[in-house]
Design goal:
Blueprint (H helix, E strand, L loop, with lengths): L8 H12 L3 H6 L1 H26 L34 E6 L10 E6 L4 E7 L4 H13 L1 H9 L1 H4 L3 E3 L17 H4 L4 E7 L1 H4 L4 H11 L1 H11 L4
Antiparallel strand pairs: 1-2, 2-3, 3-5, 4-5
Helix pairs in contact: 1-3, 3-9, 4-5, 4-10
Amino acid sequence: MAAKRSFSPALFGFLRDLEANNERQWFQANKQRYEQAVKEPGLQFVDDFAPYLAKISPHFVADSRSVGGSMFRIYRDVRFSKDKSPYKTNTGFQFRHEAGKDAHAPGFYLHLEPGGVFSGVGLWQPDAATARRIREAIVDDPARWKRVTRSKKFLDVYTLEGDSLKRPPRDFDPVHPLIDDLKRKDFIASTSLTQKAVTAEGFVDEYAKHCRLAAPFMEFLCDAVGVPF
């Protein structure tokens, strides 16, 4: 069977046009374009990725519901934002842990935006108690943490990133050899992708490879916060 194409250049074309015309009237006039170029292929991608994800871990979810599923909605929440643009100029997917109720649970992420395409993994902005458990796990098994974040195979693809505390966290050794990791507020890693790769045949296979590569990192985080991998 020939490799399948998940996304077309039309997805990025629509998002570029949306950025230049971010208003309800334009969106309503172009809603069919959105459905055909972005939403429909996105929900299909979620279904196509589901069997790959199940082999990586049975505890992460690929949910193709149009509301509340793995694909983020195009509509922005502008209630508390100075920017009142009604629509996101990107589309994204989070395949989160079954125990997670929001984006702050461990998850695999895919971000599609003109000029900014990337795959991400990890746990973004955990609450204080969850962050402490991850830091304690790093202290308890530093060798394992270094193994899952410093291996050549991992670093050839992923870069650890996110926000960090300005000072060492309370109750942790300020001169610990891994203090920079203990100061992290986000426990995430990402890798840049290209629009050409995303719109090529077989992209779902390539994305799955990235996720499999990050499995040991994700398993560490799951163990740290007490959920199964």
